[in-house]
Structures are given as structure tokens and as C-alpha cells.
Amino acid sequence: MILAMIIGMSLVTMIPRVIPAFVVDKLRFPNWLNRLLNAIPYAALGALIFPGIMNVIPDKPYVGLIGGIVAIILAYFGLHVIYVLVGSIVTVFLFTL
Amino acid sequence: MLSKAIEKTQPSPALAMIQKGLSKGFPIVIGYLPIAIAYGVLAKQAGMSNLDLTLMSVLVFAGASQFMAANMVIIGSGVIEIIIATFVLNFRHFVMSFSFMNRVREMELKWKAPLTLGLTDETFAVSSLHTEEAKKEKGALFYATLMFIAYSTWVIGSLLGGLLGDIIPEALGQSMGIALYAMFIGLLIPSVKKEWRIGCVAVIAMVSNFLFSQFLDQGWAIVLGTILGGSSGMILLKEEKR
């Protein structure tokens, strides 16, 4: 049963991922659609960050938010992504002590 | 003779792309490792064998849905129910894949098709902010490398979690839950600094995701939030230079 579940999950995950590779090759998109697709990465980042970040410590949504604000500040000052990661991990860690 | 000397001092394009993929993919490795271990631990608690839980990472490679599946196994959900929930939660990758494939049109299909299988939220985010590589010689190796190290970390971390249990202390493990969010923020902010309208697009996606999530599945809320945010970008980012 577990194996059937894994294979089923794999198919419903992989098929939607791979279809665009074959479709996009055959189509020329109008300008507005290209602009929409080019904005998708930024929109996706937004949707992935919020409200999910409030679940980092599920019963303390503010901890995730503070970690996020620290990340924004560090990234704003041009720090490498690795330091942004470390800074926000340390911040959240201090809040869980 | 001279041309040979020059060749020696310049690293081959393939090697340069692999190095760049390793460097840009490294933050994903840091973010994935604790989460993969936590998934392995949870899947073990759900009664899955080490083989099963690793196989799921090999074949599905989508963190949130694997956590959800393990939780659903614990509460006794049916297989069909779990598969449908997985489809809904992972459908956002369809939208992401469309966006990425449109950006890397120059690449050959023999590269593009396998690369889509390595698309997760994280590999998509990093790849999409480096679309210029697709036009360079051996550029596909850049994406392949960053996806490969992300994938390997995910698979190995899952197995470690299943084999060793919680090897990361709980407080640290919990704190590392912020890592991927911090990476998303770290990727987004430099673009926002260059063009403030990009920040508007992201905020519109955040707010719509939040509103939709009040009455829809998390999966559909993210898909709709992303499309709505993208549509706002269609208007806001008119003069974006390619």
C-alpha cells in the first residue's frame, strides 16, 4: 500500500512539473503572458514566504516574523545569502531558549 | 602553442558552470538538510521503513507534500486521499515550471525536460534569478548541478533521519526551520532593491495567498496567490529589460 502511495504521489508531482517543458517548446506566447510568466518567480517567492513563515514556531508566529525581519535587514545591507541564513537561524534560536 | 597556454589559464566553461551551480546551490543544501532529517524522523514514526521513506524522497522530491503524507499516514488517511492532496499541494510547480521553461527556451529539450523534474520551490527560486546562464555555453550544467546537490541532500538527509533519528538537537532543528524562508528573503531583497515594483508583486502575492488560505487548501492558495501576484507584475513590470 505504501509503495502504491509513493508511486501515485510521484506521478501527480512529476507529470505537472514536466508538461511545461514540452508545451512551451511548441508555443509562442503573447507579450502579456511573457510578462506574467517573468513575474512569477517574485510572486512565488512572496507566496512562499508569507504566511508560511509564521509557522516556524507554530505556537509563536511572531518568532518567524522577527526572523524574517532580520533576514530582510541583512539582505538589504547586501550580505551573502549564507549570512542571511545564519543571522535568522541565530535569531530564532535565541527566541526558543 | 599560445592558444594552448590560454586554454590552460581559463577554466573550461563546463567546469565554471559546475562551480557556479555548487556555490548558488549551497544555501539550499543548508536549508534542506535539517528539514530532510526531520522528514525522515516523522516518516519513521508514521511506520514507514527506511527504504520506503528514502524512496519517497527519490521519487517525489517535494518536501511539504512528504511531510503532509507522513502526517496523513499517522492519522490513517486513505492512499487516494493522500495522492489527491499531494497533487493539490504540488500543483504550484506546474506554474513555476511554465515560468522557468519560458525563460530557458534557448536550451535543448534533452536538458530542459530532466531539469523540470528537479524543480522545487527552492531550486526554482534560485534558478529563476539566474536565467542568463541558459544563454551561455554549457549553461544547463549550472542548473543541473544546483538541482543535483539539492536533490542529493534531500535524499541523503531523509535516510539519515530514518536511520539515526533526531540527530539535530530540537531547539536547533526548530530554529533551522527559518532557513528556507530566510533564503527566499535573501533572494528576493536584491531584486526589490533594484526595482521596488518587484516588492509590490511579492506583497500582492503574499496578501492574496493569506486571504485565499482562509477558505482554500494551502496548495490552491499558493497557486492562486502566485498567479495573482504574477498578473500584477504583468502590469507593474511593463518596462522590465530582458
From TrEMBL, chain A:
Please name the InterPro entries in this protein's record. Brnchd-chn_aa_trnsp_AzlD
Q: Which domain of life is it from?
A: Bacteria
Q: Name one Pfam family in it.
A: AzlD
The record's keywords, sorted A to Z, are: Membrane, Transmembrane, Transmembrane helix
Q: Where are the transmembrane segments?
A: 6-24, 36-57, 63-96
Q: What is this protein called?
A: AzlD domain-containing protein
* Taxonomic source organism: Terrihalobacillus insolitus
From TrEMBL, chain B:
* Primary site of residence: membrane
**Subcellular localization, per the record?**
Cell membrane
Q: Which keywords does this Swiss-Prot/TrEMBL entry list? A: Cell membrane, Membrane, Transmembrane, Transmembrane helix, Transport
Q: Name one Pfam family in it.
A: AzlC
Q: Does the keyword Metal-binding apply?
A: no
Q: Tell me which InterPro entries the record gives.
A: Brnchd-chn_aa_trnsp_permease
Q: Give the signal peptide range.
A: none
Q: Which GO terms describe its biological process?
A: L-valine transmembrane transport
Q: Which domain of life is it from?
A: Bacteria
The record's GO CC annotations read:
plasma membrane
Q: Mind telling me which residue stretches traverse the membrane in this protein?
A: 25-43, 140-165, 171-189, 196-213, 219-237
Question: What is its membrane topology?
Answer: Multi-pass membrane protein
Q: Which PANTHER family match?
A: INNER MEMBRANE PROTEIN YGAZ
Record-stated family? Belongs to the AzlC family.
Name-wise, this protein is AzlC family ABC transporter permease
